[in-house]
Design a protein that fits this description.
The protein has three domains: about 180 residues, Rossmann fold; about 150 residues, Rossmann fold; about 120 residues, Glycogen Phosphorylase B (Rossmann fold), CATH 3.40.50.2000. By secondary structure, the protein is of the alpha/beta class. Strands 8-7-6-9-10-11 form a six-stranded parallel beta sheet, sandwiched between helices. A six-stranded parallel beta sheet has the order 14-13-12-15-16-17, with helices on both faces. The longest helix is centred in the first third of the chain and has 15 residues. Strand 12, helix 14 and strand 13 form a beta-alpha-beta unit. Helix 1 packs parallel to helix 7, helix 9 packs parallel to helix 13 and helix 16 packs across helix 17. The structure holds zinc ion.
């Protein structure tokens, strides 16, 4: 865990060069010691432009940091940016150019986070940055680390709205991290016998299927065979998931957004199909707004002996493992926590990142992909804005590919214009995966391809509509930048284009 210094660990005293003026924030010592006791290593990532500006000397800075170490340490690494940034006020603005004039380390640039991870012998994806302002969260995202914002009275409301996670104080931040770690920890995943065949279900969209990937790999590690039940919209993504041995595609009328009527004959056919898979167990993955119980009932009818699911609704005897998860946990960890509760953990060495049955993309990353569509229209960026993004990228010398599904040909043609290369409707999912894997970055809203990018390690420029939690649905463990107004009410158009 990497902590910002001023305003996070200690009260902010602008350009402080005096160790006697160091005052830890309330509860800092106790929160840090709890994290150390849990086996986490701690570091500090701090901008100290006062050095370059002559507000204090290197010796003053060393004495102040030594005092902090004495009061709150020891820290396993200190990463300090001593550089000045002439564009400081610009760089702090939401959506601002971010460190354009300066070094690679001054937050919001990701250098300090990357260097801290390296110093700790790990990768940014396994780090959490805790800070009090937006640029701490931007630096975390740009490095591919998680972020927890602990606001002070100086934190702006838009910074709070855009943060992937927010805690009231350092104690709360420690609680959040320890709870997330406990939820997916292998300690929960103990069981007596190895099942021969397990059904995993994720019956909605491609993106939902992709974020469930780590949990499905956990089940696959503990079972001889994994049968996946998916919907028609998630089928192509399910085929790309490692660990899936067999796929059953079915449109479930209690999940599908355009549902067919429920009738006895259909439910009977589904029951027979599921019974024919021969599974003894099932782990039912759902989104927070879906119910696992109708499928649990069908699986009981099909003779499945052990069923696990997340359910706030009372399940009676439908579930053997009734799991509950607080809101705001990243979706891949939410699913992993259900797998763990059912007795399945990722084997050591399998990091809980998204992953596909495909190699990495071409080296060089000579182009950028803009994906203007969205599986949920309310989440899509306005086409005119996507068009401007393509023009701006092309104007800056980038090759821009525009991608979209068969229903998005017109949208893609418009967005590509003459500046971009229009691939709308011309990519089956495996092609899209290859294209995204080879890209320098993907510009996309909150929809399936964002999770493809996370799965192939391509950085995401996220045009994330604030209809659901960014911390839960944002790109997972891959470098990201979030653009747009996180305080905008859902379903209203954004401000007119700036230019
Ligand atoms: Zn620097």
């Amino acid at each position: 865990m990497l902590f910002d210094r001023d305003g996070t660990l200690v009260h902010d005293v602008p350009y402080n060069g005096d160790p006697d003026r160091v005052r830890p924030v309330d509860g800092a010592r106790e929160a840090l010691d709890r994290l150390r006791a849990a086996g986490l290593r701690l570091g500090v990532v701090t901008n100290q432009s006062g050095l370059a500006r002559g507000h204090f000397s290197a010796a003053d800075l060393a004495r102040v940091n030594a005092r902090i170490d004495e009061l709150l340490g020891p820290f396993d690494t200190w990463q300090i940016c001593p550089h000045d940034d002439p564009a400081d006020s610009d760089a702090d603005a939401p959506g601002g150019p971010g460190g354009r004039a300066g070094c690679r380390c001054r937050k919001p640039a990701p250098g300090l986070v990357i260097d801290a991870a390296r110093a700790l012998g790990t990768v940014p994806g396994r780090c959490v940055v805790v800070g009090d302002i937006g640029r701490d969260m931007t630096a975390a995202g740009a490095a591919g680390a998680a972020g927890v914002l602990v606001p002070t009275p100086a934190t702006r409301p838009e910074e709070i709205a855009a943060a992937p996670a927010v805690a009231g104080d350092l104690r709360g931040a420690a609680d959040l991290i320890l709870r997330r770690q406990r939820l997916v920890g292998p300690a929960r995943a103990t069981r007596r016998s190895r099942p021969r065949a397990v059904l995993v279900a994720r019956p909605d969209s491609a993106g939902d299927v992709l974020v469930t990937g780590p949990a499905i790999r956990a089940v696959a590690a503990g079972a001889d065979r994994v049968v996946m039940l998916c919907g028609p919209r998630g089928r192509a993504a399910a085929e790309l998931l490692p660990g899936v041995d067999e796929i059953v595609e079915w449109s479930l009328p209690w999940i599908d957004p355009d549902p067919a009527a429920v009738d006895r004959e259909q439910v009977g056919r589904l029951t027979d199909r599921l019974a024919a898979t021969g599974v003894q167990e099932a782990v039912l993955f759902t989104s927070f707004h879906q119910s696992a119980l109708p499928l649990a009932l069908v699986l009981r009818m099909a003779g499945v002996a052990r069923i696990a699911a997340i359910s706030d609704d009372y399940p009676g005897s439908l579930l053997d493992v009734r799991h509950r998860v607080p809101l705001g946990i990243p979706e891949p960890e939410r699913a992993l926590s259900l797998a763990a509760a059912a007795g399945f953990a990722l084997p050591p060495g399998d990091e809980p990142v998204l992953r596909l049955r495909t190699g990495p993309g071409a080296a060089g990353r000579p182009y950028v992909v803009v994906h203007p569509g969205s599986s949920v229209p309310a989440r899509a960026c306005p086409p005119v804005r996507c068009e401007q993004i393509v023009q701006a990228l092309a104007g800056a010398g980038h090759r821009v590919l525009v991608t979209g599904g068969p229903g998005e040909r017109e949208l893609c043609a418009r967005v590509a214009g003459t500046a971009g290369i229009d691939l709308g409707g011309r990519t089956a999912l495996p092609d899209l995966v290859r294209i995204i894997a080879g890209a320098g970055a993907l510009v996309v809203g909150n929809t399936g391809p964002a999770h493809i990018a996370a799965a192939v390690g391509t950085p995401v420029v996220s045009l994330f509509a604030p209809t659901v939690s960014f911390g839960q649905w944002g790109p997972y463990r891959v470098p990201w930048v979030r653009l747009g107004d996180a305080t905008a009410p859902a379903g209203t158009p954004g401000p007119p284009p700036a230019r």
